[in-house]
Amino acid sequence: MAERCSNLLNKGKFLSLNKEFTEAILMKLDKEFFSAGDIIIHQNGQPENMFFIDCGRVLVKNEAFQMELCDGDYFGEISFMFGGRQLATVSALTTCSLFTLSLQQFQEIEEEFPHVVNELRGAAQQHENDPESSAPAHLCPVALMAPVENTKGV
User: Fold this and answer.
1) Contact 146, 67 (CB under 8 A)
2) Whole-prediction pTM
3) What is the spatial distance between Cα 92 and Cα 73, in angstroms, rounded to a whole number?
4) How large is the greatest C-alpha to C-alpha distance in the chain, in angstroms?
5) What's the CATH code of the domain at 71?
6) In the chain, which end has fewer C-beta atoms inside a 10 angstrom radius, N or C?
7) Is residue 137 part of a domain?
8) Averaged pLDDT, groups of 10, the chain, 154 residues long
């Protein structure tokens, strides 16, 4: 399994917290493919999956920010951590190979590793409340992104 997910293990900050937690996630991952231009997550949609990028580039965007993510990055975790609707639309910029973790699978992992999930929630909440905080980079939520510049009227 580790060979199949080498980009995630080499760069994936979410998966570097705890060896057993990482193994539990890796065992539950499915793989999906998207073409350039495909919408992967719709803003305000219900969370169904969290995504880990094996290879490719995606754009995470809403009215307030945008960010490009690539190999080893992840997205969709904020809705998993706190519930509620998706915070941004995510679209494929290139052909993408993504590993997915369903909400049900995440909840099963949370039952087994509540302390790790609580640590992730705490760091995500800290960054949501104080984007300038110095929490470890591997705990930063995807919601912290560059503001979208206003180009109207230029």
Assistant:
1) yes
2) 0.76
3) 13
4) 53
5) 2.60.120.10
6) C
7) no
8) 57 65 89 98 92 95 93 85 89 97 91 89 68 37 40 40
